[in-house]
């Protein structure tokens, strides 16, 4: 208990005398060792093995939390060890919930939904627990038909158990989410058994050094240095690309709205169109291309991590963008009409 609460992994060292008289050591199998030798042993020592955090992990976790990312720890370690490591890394807080996989699997979908907002540590968990957790968060690979549910729960009654067994089913899950939209989930993993969870996640991140080929093939991003801080860089660049796309769209739509509107109004009012087809093509090829290069290649800044992430169903063109487009287009149209009259 003392070792576990100090973030140490416990290993017991023991021995047994007269092994030759019990089994034939030249023909002894693993099963024979477990059945005949691994009992009535003399305990030599209990050793606590420390697996210290990398220096940048604490800062990286704090940066993710500041950026509105909920960091959870899913591990096979003992609960006390997992809680100690999670507290050291800044993952587990005073109001957070930690539980073991055995208790996790006993929850109903409704009970799990109540726990999820504060669930920060899941210890003694199996790969299936990790998969279920991802499914309840984002709805990925959730059973949508009775056949799929029965395939995941053979021998169970669909009519009476569909709302009681994890991970639930899509109809039940969608009713408990606003608009049927779940969270955007990123999952890290390095083992073969992490494949289903990596597949179900919106963004699967595998380890490039310690990860297996199965995990790498199931993931979307391979972290080449196995460093948690690299996830922060991925988030930073992802937000930068998204914002750059929005900036370009705002610029592009403003220019095209003005050009098309002034041409349409001139034709309707009987004036000679100020822009012919060649001029319009020139605007698209030259002006829009230069604008795309300028706005689309803008480097990321750390200020992007000071805001919460966009929701899954967030529109690519939001209300402030429409306001800017319409106001700028109206101003430019007014100015162009004035110049054309003069």
Summarize the structure.
By secondary structure, the protein is mainly alpha-helical. About 50% of the residues lie in helices and about 10% in strands.
Describe this structure in words.
The chain is mainly alpha-helical and 342 residues long. The protein is built from 15 helices and 8 strands. It has helices spanning 2-5, 30-37, 57-66, 79-89, 101-106, 109-115, 127-138, 146-152, 158-161, 170-175, 195-200, 213-218, 229-269, 277-296, 319-341; strands at residues 8-15, 42-50, 73-74, 97-100, 119-123, 186-189, 203-207, 221-223. Helix 13 runs antiparallel to helix 14 (277-296) and helix 13 runs parallel beside helix 15. The chain is elongated. 22% of the residues are buried.
Give me the secondary-structure topology.
Blueprint: H1 2-5, E1 8-15, H2 30-37, E2 42-50, H3 57-66, E3 73-74, H4 79-89, E4 97-100, H5 101-106, H6 109-115, E5 119-123, H7 127-138, H8 146-152, H9 158-161, H10 170-175, E6 186-189, H11 195-200, E7 203-207, H12 213-218, E8 221-223, H13 229-269, H14 277-296, H15 319-341
Parallel strand pairs: 3-5, 4-5, 6-7, 7-8
Antiparallel strand pairs: 1-2
Helix pairs in contact: 13-14, 13-15
Determine the fraction of residues in helical runs and give it as a percent range.
40-55%
Q: Name the beta content range.
A: 5-15%
Q: Could you state the order of secondary-structure elements as H and E?
A: HEHEHEHEHHEHHHHEHEHEHHH
- Provide the residue-averaged pLDDT: 88
